[in-house]
């Protein structure tokens, strides 16, 4: 250690799950330890930080079942800084890259959740600049990049991450979250207290953090999943905030002052495209292949989720090309036999072409009911549809077959225009730039291929009526299917207003929506689902479409390269010619990975559980819901209107969350405090 540093900082203190130094030296020829995990930190004056940190880490045990460590330092005449880490070993079980990790000087301490996919390239750059390494981990690459570039180090990382680095000399903590928000960074900041964690339940275990929540945020998200829970820095819990995608935070640990800034924002750069369509397709293909290549880096088994859709199929086909025909590669598919939602025949097309192994699971209503309490507890917030339970089942299937790392196709729909509803914005964009010839040629065919994509006359007529009229009529007659009709009039009107889009400066209407949905609205919520469902089963999920290089290209292209020629995700479809089986590449019907949720309501047991939940005093006495309208809706379901099960799902999951997460978090915290005392 530097002599000047040794005078400036106190000795390191570490509590570990197993004996050993903070960082041990080993040959760089050894295999690297990289890990998905849970992270936590506490800065406070007074209190029992070691015990409190243990509680935080215990509550996140599923994120890192392979060990847990703590590091602590008391600032002279100031608070204590405690960092914690739960470990899921991906490469080996050695202690060389245990976290919290110190750099070679001992000045900087890191706790890190995620993967830096380009760590090998960054390591080589850092070595050429004079950096010294004692491990082969991407964790140490973060430390050395921070030492060289300071807060700007995040711009060098291609990965998913949430981390905190404590500077023992300056007494500052630097924190950052990846550009897309794949990994969570939740925190509570008060005048003499600061804490962060990967999960809500860990923060709620602290005495300073109240479990008070904003039910209106939950309802907003129930009506429109892209608002309310993940788009803002403020979370649904009054005392808990989050770093938004692409944000960083620095806090002075002596006086608790902090600042937050955005280090990455999507931008529209027309100079990226030189006018040749084939060049844009070729560049996207090259970037996507490289994104998959980086995310295949691992010394444990890597496989893929395979729904049979365009996105996951493209990843599997690219992975097969990169790994070679003889490399073992396992895929995992959710199936729904005998229903319209089953896409196994498309997954079979990919399996036949690539020769990958495949395992299937059927997420059923009965299984959902049986696993509901644990599912809600580990998801931490209400989930929008049964799709999230299907995802849960696929990750559990992978765990049963010993596949730790899974590639998945999340992120493509939002970035590349995968939802037919984007066609109204596509038409608006063509109109705005004056591309009338293309618009005249395509608009009739858009309506033929995607008949529900754009507003129809009857829908426009209905929506032209004042909302207050429609709301009053639905409640008077017990009709309607929108969740808005089951809300009090003021709450419904406010939810509707807050769902309106705002155009991003410098973007056309289509690219604005894609950027907003990818980096601030809908996708951020889907990424939370993926994080919680994968971590619930101690799996690591990697998303090749969530590579900022793809976004920098796609968001700068003209609308017709994204959704022209009557093709959703045209950029992906054209770039995958010769790679994807043609029946997959030319699938025009969009179907998400979703169980036949409405058919679940044919189950008398499911209907009984939902009715019991919506009969609770919590629901009936809420100022937000109109219980009489929901009673009518449940009666209509009982009479066979199964499609209304989609509407009933939202209040059912919110009330289930109150029972199985909020009440359980309070109970478990009390039990842990009792054990600790």
In short:
It catalyses: L-aspartate + L-glutamine + ATP + H2O = L-asparagine + L-glutamate + AMP + diphosphate + H(+). The protein folds into two domains: 260 residues, Aminohydrolase, N-terminal nucleophile (Ntn) domain (Glutamine Phosphoribosylpyrophosphate, subunit 1, domain 1, 4-Layer Sandwich), CATH 3.60.20; 232 residues, no CATH class.
What are the key terms here?
2 domains; 7-stranded antiparallel beta sheet; 6-stranded antiparallel beta sheet; 28 helices; globular; glutamine amidotransferase; 677 residues; Glutamine Phosphoribosylpyrophosphate, subunit 1, domain 1; alpha+beta
Radius of gyration using CA atoms only: 25 Å
Q: Name the CATH homologous superfamily of the largest domain.
A: Aminohydrolase, N-terminal nucleophile (Ntn) domain
Rounded to the nearest angstrom, the distance between the terminal CA atoms is 39 Å
Structural class: alpha+beta
**CATH-scheme architecture of the largest domain:** 4-Layer Sandwich
